[in-house]
Amino acid sequence: MSKNNIGNNIKFLRQNAGLTQAQLGKIFGVSHVTVSTWESGRTMPTPDIVEGLCMTLHCRKEEILGFGYAGREKDVQRKKLNEYFDALSEDNRHLLLVRAKELVNLEAEMGGYSNANAS
User: Fold this and answer.
1) Cα–Cα distance list, 52 to 28, 42, 91, 108 (Å)
2) Cα-flanking dihedrals φ and ψ of residue 88, to 5°?
3) pLDDT tens-place string over residues 13-34
4) Under a CB-based contact definition with an 8 Å cutoff, are residues 103 and 45 in contact?
5) How many whole angstroms separate alpha carbon 93 and alpha carbon 96?
6) Global pTM?
7) I need a surface site. Which of 3, 14, 28, 99 has the fewest CB within 10 A?
8) Are 58 and 17 within 8 A, CB to CB?
9) Under a CB-based contact definition with an 8 Å cutoff, are residues 77 and 37 in contact?
10) 2 versus 11: which is more confidently predicted?
11) Domain containing residue 58: CATH number
């Protein structure tokens, strides 16, 4: 567990949550400089701050500490898809959902759809 990796994880999660260093620091009663030192790996947050970061950034400790968490890329893709969907007009959302349902049904009819593919 490297301080730099933890710092990179904190930075990624903070940015993904749409928070600035100053905003995150305010939540924990520290300055943006302190948050910067966490993100650069010069210092590490205390265990109670790590717990708070998990709650604030809606993540698991593994995501901050980097213990075998492999879901980051999926999280980023999911966020981008949600942002794209939210930006669509109501009519386009409806069309997209109808088309997705058609594709799932077609795949099921062809026998290629299984629970293993439904992640």
Assistant:
1) 8, 20, 40, 43
2) -75, 155
3) 999 899 999 999 999 999 999 9
4) no
5) 5
6) 0.58
7) 99
8) yes
9) no
10) 11
11) 1.10.260.40
54-62 contacts, C-beta under 8 A, 24 or more apart: 56/17, 56/24, 56/27, 57/13, 57/14, 57/16, 57/17, 57/19, 58/17, 59/13
Structural domain that includes position 93: 72-117
Tokens read off for 25: 């620091």
The domain tally of the chain equals 2
Those residues whose C-beta lies under 8 Å from the C-beta of residue 108, and which sit 6 or more positions away, are: none
Whether residues 11 and 58 share a domain: the answer is yes
Task: For residue range 40-72, list pLDDT tens digits in order.
Answer: 999 999 999 999 999 999 888 988 988 755 566
Place of tokens 């007009």: 89
**pLDDT score of 35:** 97
pLDDT in tens, 88-105: 999 999 999 999 899 888
